[in-house]
Structure formats: C-alpha cells, structure tokens
Amino acid sequence: MTSLRRPFPWKFLITRLVHAVFTVLGIAIVAFLLLQLAPGDAAQALAGESGTADAEYLASLRAQMGLDRPIYEQLGAFLMRILRFDLGYSFRYGTDVASLIFSRMPATLLLMVSSILIALVGGLFFGITAARHVNRLPDRLISIFALLFYATPPFWIGLMMILIFSVQLGWAPTGGMINIVAGHTGFAAVLDIAHHLVLPALVQAFFYFAIYTRLVRTGMLEVLNLEYIRVARAKGISENRIAYRHALQNAVLPLVTVVGTNVGTILGGAVLTETVFSWPGVGRLMFDALFQRDLNLLLSILVISSIFVVIANLVVDLLYCVINPTVELR
Amino acid sequence: MLPPIVRMTLEGRAGQVRHARMEKLGMPTNTDTPMMISRRALLLAGSASLLAGAVLPGISFAQEAAGGTLVMTISPEPNAMISAFNSASPVAVISSKMTEGLLRYDFELQPHPELATAWEVSADGLTITFHLREGVKWHDGQPFTSADVAYSIMEILKQHHPRGRGVFSGVESAETPDEHTVILHLKTPAPALMSALAGAESPILPKHIYEGTDVLNNPANNAPIGTGPFKFVEWSRGSHIILERNPDYWEAGHPLIDRLVVRNYADSSARVAAFEADEINLGGDGLIPLNEVKRFESNPAFQVETRGTEMNNSLDVLECNMRNPYLAKREVRQALMHAIDKDKMLDIVWYKLAELLTGPIPQSLPNFYSADVPSYPFDPARSEQLLEAAGLPKQADGFRFKLRLIWPATGDTYDRAAQFLRQQFRKVGVDLDLQSADVPTFINQVYANYDFDLSMFPSSVGSDPTIGSQRFFLSTAIKQGTPFVNASGYSNPEMDAVLNKAAVEPNAEARKALLAEFQKIAMTDLPMLPLARPIYVTVASANVRDFITGPEGIRSNYATLSIAK
C-alpha cells in the first residue's frame, strides 16, 4: 500500500468544504419547500391521533409550533436554526430534536456499520472467489445467491429469519436492541446488544452483500486479464497472493464508490430493517415523522443525512488516491 | 420502496372478536355472565375481579402470583406519557398506570370509587360534590388534596384536554371547602361529565408540580408524577418504557406486579412473532392482525379477550357529503344503506369480529341504545327503486352516477371494506372511486376542504353520546378546518334541539328518551351510514390474570393485574 506521496491537499479540502455548506443549505431549502406540498400539517396529524379537537385548540397548537406564520418566515427561521446548529423542538415528542435524533443515532450507526462491514468482508471474499472460478460452479452458485438476496425485499428476509431463528429455534430475540427485563450491565450488556444485533445486521448486510459481490467480481474479471497479472503468474506468485494483493487493489475502486454512497445513506437506509426488528434507530424516527407531519424533525434528519452524504463523498474521493496513487485531486 | 412497508406497518387497528358470534346466539354482549361460557371462564371470572366476589366467591389469584415483570406492547408508540394534553389512545394506555382519575367504571358503565370515595350530584345537576380518598400520596411523597383536583379540572383538563375542553366547559368553578372535598359548580347540567372521569380520560395531576409553569412543556409530562400504582422509571423513545411498583400506593398490597415494561414493535408481523417467542405477555387495541386472531384463540398459550373497549365505542361509518348533489337527496342515502349486505360484510371485512350497527349508538352502551329506529335491510331491488324515484336512471354505461370514497390508511380493514362497498354499490348502478390517504391528508381533505363524497373512518361515541356522537350531527358543529366534527353539512333544527336538550337533561330517563329520539332522526335523515362497531381484542399470555377488569380495558390502572407462576 502506498500512502500520500504529495503535500496534503488543503486547497481541495477547503474548496470542497465550502461547497458542502452550500450543498447542505440548498438541500435544506429544497426539502423544506417540497415538504410544504404534503397535505395536512402536524396540528392536524396530532388532532387525528386524538380523534378530536376544536378550532381553538388547533389554532393554539399551530401557534405553538409556529405553523401560523407565513412560509417564508418559517423557512427563514428554519435556516437560521440550522446555521446556529439548533434543531429546534418537536412538539409531537415533547423534547428537543437534537436529543431525539442523537439518542437514536448510536443504534442506527451500530446497525449500519456492522452490516456494511459484514457485507464488505463477504462481498470481497465471494466476489474474488467468483472471479477466480468464472463460469464454473462456485461462480454460478455465488451469482445465483447474490441475485436472490438482491431481489428479495429485506423486510421479507427479516420476517422469515425471525420466524426461523427466533420463533422456531429460539436462538435470537425477535426484535429490539436490549433485553429490558434482564437489565444486563457491563460486559453482559455488550453481549446482549450483540445478540440482538445479529439478525438485523445480517438482513441489512444481505442487500449490500449482493451488490458488493457483483462489483468485486466484475472488477476482478477485468483486472485478472491484464498483462501485469500474467507477469505476476509467470514470476510464480501464488494465486491467492495475486488475487488479494495484486489484482484487488486495482479492482476495488467501483466498490469504494458504492460503499461510499451506502455510508452516506446510513441514517435513513435501514428503515425497513429497523421496522421489522423494532430497532430503535433514526430511520424509523424519520418514517414516523413523515406520517405525523413533524416537518421540523424530518427536515433536521434530512439535513444531518445530507451532511453525512457530503462527508462520505469527500472521504471516498480522498480514499481513491490512497488506494490508487495515480488518481489526482483537483 | 415505501408502499409495502406502509401496508405492513399501518395495520394498527386490526384485531376483533367473537362478540358478534355471541350476538347471533341471542346473548347480550355487555354483561359479564355470557362470557362465562367461554373456555376461559375461570380467567374471566378472575378478570372481572371487581365483581368476582359476587360471581365466584373465594377465588383469588393474588396469593399465588405476587411480583414479576409484565411486558406489554402498545402500538403505535405513545408520544407522551400523560393523557391530559394528548388524548391519543396509546397515550391513555400508559398514562393510566401512573395517574388516576376520580372514578372508575364497571362494564355497565356505572361509576365506582377511585380517587373519590363518594359523590353527590344535586337534583338540578348544577352542583357535583366529590369526597376524596385520604392518605393518598403523589409519587414524590407530597399529599394528594382537593387543591390538586380543583387545579387539574379548572387549569389543565378544561383548558388543554382535547375532549375535556368540551366535557368540562359547563364547569364554572371548583370549590375546596376542606382538603378532601371538591364541589364543582356548573352553569348548565352536564350529565356526560360523570362518565368522563376515569384515569385514562381525565387524569388528576399534582398542582405543586404544574402550578406557575408552562404546563404544556412541563418536564413532568414526559416523566409523570401521579398517584397511580406504578411509578415512572425510564422512557427510551423508539424502544421501551419502564414503570415500577409504587410501594406507597393507597390500596394496601397493590399493585401485585413489581415492574411493567412496554416494548415497541412497529410491525404487526414482528409483534405476532414476539408474542409467539414469549417476549411479550400483553397487547390490546387490536394490534394483532384480524386474520391472526383465530390462531391466537385456538392456541392454549394465549388468552384472547373481547371486552374492554366499552368506554371508547369506535364505530366504522360512512359520512355522506351532502354538498354533493346526489348525496343531498335522502333517497340516495337510503338506497346506499339498502345496497349493503351487512352480514356478508361482517364475514369478509371484519372476520366476524364486529357488532353490526342498527343506528348511531352501539349496543355496548345499553343505557343509551335504542332499537326503535328505521331499519335498512339488504334489498338491492328496493335500493334501485329509491334511486329511480330520485330521478337517477341508469346511463348507457350501466351506472347512474359516480361517488368518491376516501378513508384514512390505518390498516387493511378499510381497504377491504372499500373494495366490498364498491362491489355492492355497483350492483345498484352507483360507481365508486376509491382513495386511501394517510391521516393528515385525510383530515385535510375531508375536514378542511370538504373534498370528498363519502368518507369512511372510525367515529368514536365515547362513553356518552354527548361526548362523542353529537359533534357529527349538530349543525353548530359544522366547523370547516376542525377534524372529526360534522363534515356532511347536515343541518336539521329538530336534531339540534333534541341533542342540545339531551346534553343538559339531568334526569336519566328523560335523557334516554331524548337520545332515542336522536337515534330515530339520525336513521331517518342518514347523514352518516352506520356500518359496524369493530371489536378490538386484547391478547395475553396464558398466565396473565386480570388484564381486562372493566370497560377501560388495557387503559385501567393494573393495580390488580398479576402473573401466575
């Protein structure tokens, strides 16, 4: 592996960060305007849940939430809050938005990071294996399973896994993140979370795994036919070493790009898995916020998500030249 | 990616029951005794513990079952811990374990002591005196007094409770002659008030915590301090709620369990799996999909209880927008009623877990129900006759006219009902466009814009027609922009007079007669076509005792709930 053999790209970084601020603000404004198109507001959603409300009550709810002010004032107030890193208050949850989101962020990050890692390890191994046995049985089997996992909706896989491993076999809990009744502490609590994590992380990983496997396989196939690989073979280097050391480095750039986008969607990307496994994450919070018209909460999550995407893209760009020094940053 | 999950997760209000079957057997459905024939006879005797003394003396599960943790699920997750500011159903379920009301009720909806031990209503209905329980302490150790009750009614329930603003509107002042007496003075009699004092509906809150603060944003709203059998411990949003036994609870030796844990399952299939894996012991409000209820009923590891929604009485109805020229004609509305094969609908739409309605008040409110109303048996020929008489002959395409039906996307029951209605209406030449909308869209379209022809939704009668029903029928309740009021545009001075009289009639018999008149007019004019009262079941593990002890169902305080070893 080569490290950066040139001065750190400060100029590149600063330009990109300035761009990032404007990108995030632009996303915030567009998202705000788009969400105004949704019929009904948070006051009506709250009233709908209660099954009753009088006009005065609705008016006081709207005044409390600031929904009675003109759109441009609401947008201005929202942008000012974003710039001050103040996400405001969710009247539906009766708490401030920042603590609501950040209390649920660890669950989502844990789920997404572990599933992406599982998918990466699996995708690399099976992708390389498939490429090395191209058009033979292992390749065919891997391709079939990858296609199956890719085409099956994750919530269905999740429900099937719950039925088999939780209800029938009793190996894993059906959902949630901790065993509240047992109230574990210390190392037992870590094990407990891991136990709850296994099924949702696997289900979420299956989806990525399918994509990663196919990307690695294609990339490897292209590289394995190049001259320098033939040279390596001629030098008598073992097939494993050729695959994992010589070919892989040149074959993974597309994979890095896709993993980068997956990392970018880390906050909202697991809604289905979070729903099926009752995983207390941000994705589910976002989904509920949409149906409750808690637009401030929803917008806050969208803005944080867009920050994730921007940062992930930046990191991916920097990674390119770490992995492949011929890539230039401009 | 969204549509499948929308369908999966919004199945919320689904479950239902064998109530209907019992009715076919000709049994009354609102008393305790008929339930005794079920295979869970013993459990139910236990569950009716308030009355068990009279029914099966000597049976008590308390000794064998002290302690333990109950894990229940509430769906959707409550978004507040106190039902004083948000009367959504899930909030009432959790709130009622920590805070209490002045009264509790039996299955006949008769009041019994809770925080009030005795009460008198003056003959003119203008003065109500409550004698309060002594020796009750708030969870923070402060004594509970009449000042708390006066403050809760005047400053919290009357000001901020979505329904309380109407229920307590007649209360002018609350006098506290001593620490344990409260006297309410009313401008006009409010007979419905006495059936709205349960803990889940009208919780009494501590004055010393709320006075002088911004009550809507008081931190205690998310970490309640009440007088109830359980104390708040922890609320981890999106995951769980933990409550623990209140050791200083006024009813000695209660509650019987040590801890109550609420776990959140967003998806109904995951919920079913969690029940089967024994990870949850209790869940109500029909959170098991209708088509799964039978499986739970036949599984000895579970109990399925059909009672416990008698305080709520949510009815599935069709409201007619009378601004539509077709629906403005009474014959058309009557023709639509004749076009629906309700018995078939009961089987197909509600899996028989519903009570078919004959009018705007269900039989679960025996004090108010009247059978003496115009009826509309299934009769397509009569339906077509009425439509012809209304001057609406069939066009070349076989249809007379087209209507649009909208409903809130809250589960697959309404989807099925809409498909069923379209088939039935088409047979008499009325075409139907179907539109399923999420709740805020539904409210906006129906109540803010009147942009609908027929709207199908759960309309709650509550424990008294004055609380729940009248807002759909009074002409003064036509308030554009306000959800769940008169959206049909129906206006009949005779109806207004009857309802307004019933709302303030202190004499029970005279009031019953007025409400019978209301039902008759409602079924003659038909601004709303009543369909059925779905029965939302409660499911519990076999070892859970006394989880439905009254009409509040899972909204009771669970001081007497126990888990057999």
Structure report:
The complex is a heterodimer of chains A (330) and B (565). By secondary structure, chain A is mainly alpha-helical. Chain A has 2 domains: 10-96, no CATH class; 104-323, MetI-like fold. Chain A has 14 helices and 2 strands; from the N terminus they run ααααββαααααααααα. Chain A has helices at 10-35, 42-50, 55-65, 71-83, 97-132, 137-151, 154-168, 186-224, 227-234, 239-251, 253-264, 271-276, 282-291, 295-323, and strands spanning 89-90, 95-96. Chain A has a two-stranded antiparallel ribbon with strand order 1-2. In chain A, helix 11 (253-264) packs antiparallel against helix 14 (295-323). Chain B has helices spanning 2-9, 19-24, 41-47, 49-55, 89-98, 146-160, 164-167, 207-210, 268-276, 290-297, 330-339, 342-350, 380-389, 412-427, 439-448, 465-468, 493-504, 508-525, and strands at residues 69-73, 103-105, 111-113, 116-121, 127-132, 171-178, 181-186, 230-236, 240-245, 259-263, 282-283, 302-305, 314-320, 354-356, 401-408, 430-437, 454-460, 528-534, 538-541, 544-545, 562-563. Chain B has 4 domains: 1-64, no CATH class; 66-98 and 228-309 and 536-565, Periplasmic binding protein-like II (D-Maltodextrin-Binding Protein, domain 2); 100-218, Alpha-Beta Complex (Dipeptide-binding Protein, domain 1), CATH 3.90.76; 314-534, Dipeptide-binding Protein, domain 3. In chain B, strand 6 and strand 7 form a beta hairpin. In chain B, helix 3 crosses helix 4 (49-55), helix 11 (330-339) packs antiparallel against helix 13 and helix 12 (342-350) runs antiparallel to helix 14 (412-427). At the A-B interface, helix 2, helix 3, helix 5, helix 7 and helix 12 of A face helix 1, strand 10, helix 9 and helix 15 of B.
